[in-house]
Write the structure tokens for this entry.
Amino acid sequence: MNIRTFLFVSALLAPFSAFAQSPFPISLGVKGGAALTDAFSDSTLPFSNGTSRTYSPKHDYVVGPMLEVRLPMGVSVEGDALYRPLNLNAVQSFNGPTSTLAYSVTSWEFPILVKYHLGFPIVKPFIEAGPSFRYVKGFSATQLSTKGFSAGLGVEAKALFVRVAPEFRYTHWGSDFNEGVSGFNPESNSNQVEFLVGISF
């Protein structure tokens, strides 16, 4: 092994070495699932010569990395970075002709949750709660809220070195800021429910 290869491998293993020296067990993994609620509200705005309707055509998928630090007495802290595309259709009808525009808004959710696991031997139920933040690249007419609060419940099962944890998670986001631009003012659904499955090591 030459010096460049040694340095490259050492750089890759450095974070895992730091985790191993941590006083508390740390789990890394991936979390994915689907939204059970629409990203945007179904709303229709009437005009003198037509209507403008905005709605979500389908539920969104959710996926991203997770990290969990396990503390004593069944308590842990989990942080996620979840990618969720927010799907939106805008249908405008003026004097007969109808046009439909489809959008996919980039959204990254960053929940930081305190979890409590019940002390059952094989399958461990848990509850969780904490603040959520998100980055959204959306529209100039509507600024979606970037701060919220999440809570959830699920179960965790361990098989060999793998932990599998399905859960239902609820997030309440703050109110949107709407500049009142006529014709296109999509309103997000502030109450979101997601079904997620975490796989960690």
Q: What stands out?
A: Residues 112 and 140 are 28 Å apart (CA to CA). Helices lie at 3-20.
